[in-house]
Amino acid sequence: MRNAVLILFALSLVACNGTGQTSTENPQSPMNDSNKVVKTEEEWKKILSDEQYNVLREKGTERPFSGKYYLHTDKGMYACAGCGSELFKSDTKFDAGCGWPSFSDVVDSTKVVYIKDKSHGMIRTEITCATCGGHLGHVFDDGPAPTGLRYCINSVSIEFKK
Question: Is the model's pLDDT at 5 over the cut of 70?
Fold first, then answer.
């Protein structure tokens, strides 16, 4: 019986959501509580714009084709607007035509958390910042080689660093 419980537990940890990533959290993440940025909602409201707060803390989204990084082509790094954690390199950015900045890969898989999202009548994979928990966007399995992934990110959830 004990072995059956352990097997079921192990299987639940590797359950996938269509992108090969775990459905609730990236188990390889070395992040522990001391590495996380934890603030009250009032503290977040003081440091984020209204639009950033809506997206990062309330899981909102910006209008398609409206974000400042949608057609941005400068070389550099894109970091979380909430905590500064580096997430995407500009050389993984591509124009998916979807209206939001799109990236084919993350800088490091431990920088994001993958969460099954059943909102709005769809089943998608939400990605959040592993450091501060901010909502970034969603990842889909229709991106270019070699990853085949498209990280569809809200411009207000990231900041560009040259």
Answer: no
Per the DSSP assignment, residues forming a β-bridge with 135 are 128
Give the CATH number, domain containing residue 45.
2.170.150.20
Whether 6 is in a domain gets the answer no
For 32-76, what is each residue's pLDDT tens digit?
Answer: 566 899 999 999 999 999 999 999 999 999 999 999 999 999 999
- Residue 41 is classified by DSSP as H
Half-sphere exposure of 29 (CA within 13 A, CB side): 21
Its sign, for the CA torsion 161, 105, 154, 54, is: negative
Position 16 pLDDT exceeds 50: no
Task: Kindly list the catalytic residues.
Answer: 152
Q: Tell me, yes or no, whether 10 lies in a domain.
A: no
Q: Residue 123: count other Cβ atoms within 10 Å of its Cβ.
A: 10
Supply 49's token pair.
Answer: 């714009």
Number of domains forming the structure of the chain = 1
